[in-house]
Amino acid sequence: MSWLVWLLVAAGLGIGEIFTPGMFFLGPVALAAGAGSIAAALSGGLAALITFLICSVLSLAFLRPIARAHLHLPAISRTGTAALVGHKAIVLRRVDANSGRVRIGGEEWTARPYVDGVVIEEGTAVDVVEIQGATALVME
User: Fold this and answer.
1) Which runs of E-coded beta strand occur in 62-134?
2) Cα 50 from chain centroid?
3) Which are the contacts of 70, defined by CB distance < 8 A and separation ≥ 6?
4) Separation of CA 121 from chain center
5) Which of 81, 98, 107, 130 could disulfide-link 137, Cβ–Cβ 3.0 to 4.6 Å?
6) Which of 119, 118, 111 is nearest to 137 (CA)?
7) 20 φ, ψ to 5°?
8) What's the CA gap between 125 and 88, in Å, rounded?
């Protein structure tokens, strides 16, 4: 019957992983609890606990680094407005808290300073830090 407890723990951790995106901590532990469930069905409680502990360490050590590497996409893999972040832009019209225009590549964008209170004059080269809707947040 302890195999059922381990199976429920595995299911709970798997569901928890779904609701905590970006961490990838509960998923490997859920796999270990699943292995513990199999060990409990075959051998009993102590074997399940040992299997769970060993599988937790191994799955976290091997799977988590692989998953985390895939969470951070390199710039070449980004598409849409996310691909513009990190690009250089030229200020076409003075950028302040209320208005501004920049040219990013061949496109003209509305712009605001990334840091409140900063004013960036026309002709200045800036970096695109973030895109919010159709507005580029820039800084020198």
Assistant:
1) 88-93, 101-104, 107-113, 125-132
2) 32
3) none
4) 34
5) 130
6) 111
7) -125, 70
8) 7
